[in-house]
Design goal:
alpha+beta; 60s Ribosomal Protein L30, Chain: A; five-stranded mixed β-sheet; two-stranded antiparallel ribbon; 5 helices; globular; binds zinc ion
């Protein structure tokens, strides 16, 4: 943005909250936000399963399932936004069927649960904290894979990557962490004609 003094910028009119008209008619929607966080330890081996893709590495993540730390954070964010509990309740790590389980498949199960509950995914914003592998070149690949698993448009997904600045468990390459915020929406009534997904970001066909 050019350097225009604040007072001269053309901001949209701000209406005080209490003076806003309530939306008329049925064309409204309801939104919810959820947060997910996960950590998995690293051990020698490879590859690293992250965001539903296998990344060549001389270390791998430790976990009961395939230990996909990003998909676990996404799953928790979606379940949390819908008020449907968490990944540990849906897929207990004491259950034999969850040993080595594909986290993409678990995420699809969670997506079905939120869909049955009436919710659509508006967007996801995720951060992966990893010293290595360097994720910069892979962010778009992971973004596309997340969109594919969830059957939404890549524009509805954001994947960011941070290092641990060589301190803490992430910085010492002992662990990888992931965080995700998910926004869900639903029509306010079955009669509502508008989608709660913005027209610029329609669902993938
Ligand atoms: Zn996990």
């Amino acid at each position: 943005m050019p350097n225009i003094p604040l007072a001269k910028r053309n901001f949209p009119a701000q209406i005080p909250l209490g003076k806003r008209d309530l939306p008329e008619g049925p064309a409204t929607y309801v939104a919810r936000v959820g947060i997910g966080h996960d950590t998995h330890r690293l051990r020698p081996g490879g590859p690293i399963r992250l965001g539903g893709i296998d990344i060549p590495s001389d270390s791998e993540m430790v976990g009961h399932s395939d230990a996909d730390v990003l998909l676990h954070a996404v799953t928790d964010a979606l379940l949390g936004a819908a008020g449907l509990g968490d990944i540990g309740e849906m897929f207990p790590d004491t259950a034999a069927e969850n040993r080595g389980r594909d986290s993409a498949e678990m995420l699809r199960v969670a997506k079905r649960a939120i869909t049955v509950a009436g919710w659509e995914i508006a967007n996801l914003d995720c951060i992966v904290h990893a010293e290595r592998p360097k994720l910069g070149p892979l962010k778009q690949v992971i973004r596309g894979r997340l969109a594919e698993i969830l059957e939404i448009a890549p524009e509805q997904v954001s994947v960011k990557a941070k290092t641990g600045e060589r301190v803490g468990p992430v910085g010492r390459q002992e662990a990888i962490e992931a965080q995700c915020v998910a926004s869900l929406c639903t029509k306010s009534s079955p009669a509502a004609e508008t989608s709660c997904i913005t027209p610029d970001h329609p669902k993938s066909p």
